[in-house]
Design goal:
The complex is a heterodimer of chains A (about 180) and B (about 190).
Chain A (H helix, E strand, L loop, with lengths): L15 H8 L5 H13 L1 H13 L11 H32 L4 H31 L2 H41 L1
Chain B lengths: L10 H9 L3 H23 L2 H17 L10 H22 L4 H6 L15 H20 L2 H12 L4 H8 L3 H18 L5
The chains are: A mainly alpha (about 180), B mainly alpha (about 190).
Chain lengths: ~180, ~190
């Protein structure tokens, strides 16, 4: 490996992309033939290809850890798998509680839940609507007032009946005396 | 040394057992593919601990989603996609981390137990160290897709078609990413050519 000061000759612009693929062996047979023919006559493209051949393999990162590393890797991996399996067990337990129930039972439960939700929503909604239009005390008074008036009427009627009865009894008493 | 009883079993059978809840079967899959997985992760992270964590994270994802593996491709092809995605996610996370971390971590890659086959002269060693840092910095500057295409081609030796499948993109797009990555790296590393 040499640290170079001069920049390399630039490859021909229209062959640049093909030259990269040529280096990696990813060109078609016909394109390969074209590249081979061009390279015979073009010093810049030959230099460009030579540069790729010397530079690109050096960019790969190589690491060969010792055996102890791999043993530690396996141990750590088993520990992590244990942790994942443990957390999955909790989920399975929850799912396991629901899963044995038959579909009709689950459907009935869902319908009941929906009905309860609707009932609560409507009841609460109605209460809220009422409270927003009039105060509860006023409303109760308005409902009781006609009833009280009717009660007065019947009381008066009862009093008149009693007076009639008293007059009749008085008249009868005078006649017999 | 006696061979493991699962040594002759194919990946497909191990996956089938793992899907039925056999932990040992999955652990055998890890044993088979851990070194390849680690090397790919190392290509992306260029850091030993990070590479270990990333490859293990990919195995854990494969473990939790093993029921979704439908067997249309090989286990390793399926796992490979998970791994590359984990590595790309790491790239996004790393981008948010302070830039100085890179130089600190790459300095610690020398394995004290590793004896090189061809010892190099001190000046060559210094240049190699300098190149290592410059390559890391140059790769770091590449957009994620260019970097992925380059690593999968240059380091892993995948075909353009395989890269396109892994990255879920067109082959023509992969070629463009690869060309741009190589051009950018050559500009950054011209002095080492």
């Amino acid at each position: 490996m040499v640290v170079r000061d001069k920049p390399a000759l630039k490859a021909c612009r229209d062959l640049e992309e093909d030259l990269v693929l040529y280096y990696y062996g990813e060109v078609s047979e016909s394109a390969r033939g074209n590249c081979d023919a061009h390279l015979k006559n073009c010093e810049a493209c030959r230099a460009s290809l030579a540069e790729m051949r010397s530079l690109l393999p050096m960019t790969a990162a190589h690491d060969e850890p010792a055996q102890a590393f791999w043993e530690d890797y396996s141990r750590e991996m088993r520990r992590k798998l244990d942790a994942v399996a443990e957390s999955e067990t909790w989920w399975r337990r929850i799912v396991g509680l629901v899963a044995p129930l038959p579909v009709p039972a689950l459907a009935t439960g869902a319908v009941l839940l929906l009905a309860l939700t609707l009932t609560l929503t409507l009841t609460l909604g109605k209460g809220l609507w009422r409270s927003s239009t009039s105060a509860p005390d006023d409303e109760a008074f308005m409902e009781v007032l006609p009833m009280a008036e009717q009660l007065d009427f019947f009381s008066n009627m009862e009093l008149l009946d009693n007076l009639d009865l008293l007059e009749t009894l008085t008249g009868q008493g005078n006649g017999t005396a | 040394m006696a061979a493991s009883p699962t040594a002759r079993i194919g990946d497909e059978e191990l996956v089938a057992s793992a899907q039925k809840g056999d932990r040992r079967a999955f652990e055998e899959l890890v044993e088979r593919h851990k070194q390849k997985a680690y090397r790919i992760a190392f290509d992306f992270a260029r850091d030993r601990e990070e590479a270990k964590d990333l490859s293990q994270e990919a195995f854990l994802k494969a473990f939790t989603h093993i029921s979704r593996f439908d067997g249309r491709s090989g286990f390793y092809t399926w796992f490979y996609r998970i791994l590359v995605n984990v590595c790309l996610d790491y790239r996004r996370r790393a981008k948010r981390a302070p830039a100085e971390e890179y130089n600190e971590t790459v300095e610690h890659q020398v394995d004290p137990t590793h004896v090189p086959a061809n010892p190099v002269a001190p000046d060559q060693h210094a240049i190699a160290g300098q190149l290592w840092r410059r390559v890391g910095a140059a790769l770091e500057l590449l957009p994620a897709k260019q970097r992925t295409a380059f690593i999968l081609k240059n380091h892993q030796g995948l075909s353009i078609r395989e890269i396109a499948e892994t990255m879920e993109t067109a082959e023509g797009t992969v070629k463009v990413h690869l060309h741009r990555a190589v051009t950018a790296l050559r500009q950054s590393l011209a002095e080492f050519a």
